[in-house]
Amino acid sequence: MAATLKPYLTAVRHTLTAAMCLENFSSQVVERHNKPEVEVRTSKELLLNPVVISRNDKEKVLIEASINSVRVSISIKQADEIEKILCHKFMRFMMMRAENFFILRRKPGYDISFLITNFHTEQMYKHKLVDFVIHFMEEIDKEISEMKLAVNARARICAEEFLKRVILKQDEPKTSEVFQCLTSKESLQVETCFDCFFFHMLKIV
């Protein structure tokens, strides 16, 4: 675990544990209604001050607590365009199956959001819910990094197979410059730009 990641996750864990002191509370506006106050926001006195825990500009967590619910919004590190696409696809895949995750929100704040209500804390262990959120934050960066490596490896193979069919000779003019990345030192040698190639292929798919 990175030196800066451990205190970041520790701060998130302590804040979540403190914010998850929830109780059953009916709506003060509509009779016989019990909705997450952090979502409906009809009574300001039932809402706590939101807390933002930031590791850097790209990684942060927003924790919004109320008397009967907690909303956790997570911003995931995305260093380049490929990671942005992978993160978007992965989050979309999860949100389409939100009912299987119980606490996952379909419309996220930041990149992904969890909504924990008093009914969840009554049916599940509170410390296990906190552990799940922390474990998710630990593993999501690894998952995206592994997917990026797999994408680059697959892109390399695809580009090599594609460029095998492009026959270039040193004494012939270069006609397929769309699929070439030429260096200034080796003007007659073709270098393949795998990231750009696969990014273009992802857009097509």
UniProtKB/TrEMBL annotation:
Highest rank taxon of the organism: Eukaryota
Cellular component aspect of the GO annotation: Arp2/3 protein complex
GO MF term list: actin filament binding
Broad class of where this protein is predominantly found: cytoplasm
Keywords from the named record: Actin-binding, Cytoplasm, Cytoskeleton
Entry similarity comment: Belongs to the ARPC4 family.
Protein name, UniProt field: Actin-related protein 2/3 complex subunit 4
